[in-house]
Write a structure and sequence with these properties.
By secondary structure, this protein is an alpha/beta fold. It comes from Phytohabitans houttuyneae.
Length: 182
């Protein structure tokens, strides 16, 4: 068993991994509330290549998301048949791989938004992307999960310094709630 996946003597490794992931996402502007397109633009600007989001039906016995990297762009595929909150996690996890620099190789360029994206790829590339063991190891999966958690915590956190626009008819109720919360 690898130290970062559960052995007691791996606490230092897990802490180092978490600190590394926190450093990687520290300067990323995470939209609140979560907005996948905006976050992909932010990460794409940071890594120097655009990231195109593609909601596609994914097989039940396969991964729920994957990244296909071209020489000019990354294509982040996520399961279009799952709930929105799960889609957010899938997208954040796949962005975690890109943020951490995990790669499984590049494919020839394809046009963004091509409806039959996966069918235009070499079957070997699709097999490699779908077979996580062929590209990412357990440590990389753990890092992607940590990064996803950090991004989503920020996207779903309440920021007291944020200015809220409250409709007039709800102002009294909001004021009472604020007073009760301190």
């Amino acid at each position: 068993m690898t130290p970062w996946l559960g052995r007691d003597d791996g606490n230092d490794d897990r802490r180092r991994m978490r600190r590394r992931c926190a450093r990687l996402v520290r300067d990323i502007k995470v939209p609140v509330p979560f907005d996948a397109e905006t976050l992909c633009r932010e990460v794409g600007d940071r890594i120097g290549q655009p990231i195109h989001l593609l909601g596609v039906p994914m097989p039940a016995d396969g991964p729920s998301g994957l990244v296909i990297s071209g020489s000019r762009a990354h294509y982040l595929c996520y399961d279009s048949g799952t709930r929105p909150l799960h889609q957010q996690h899938i997208i954040a996890h796949e962005l975690g791989h890109l943020i951490a620099g995990h790669t499984t190789g590049h494919v020839e360029d394809i046009e963004p938004g091509t409806p039959a994206l996966l069918s235009t790829l070499d079957p070997g590339v699709v097999r490699q992307a779908l077979a996580r063991d062929a590209g990412y190891d357990r440590r990389e999966e753990a890092e992607a999960e940590i990064i996803a958690d950090l991004l989503l915590q920020r996207a779903h956190s309440w920021a007291p310094e944020r200015t809220w626009h409250v409709p007039m008819d709800a102002a009294d109720v909001v004021a009472r709630i604020e007073r009760s919360l301190g």
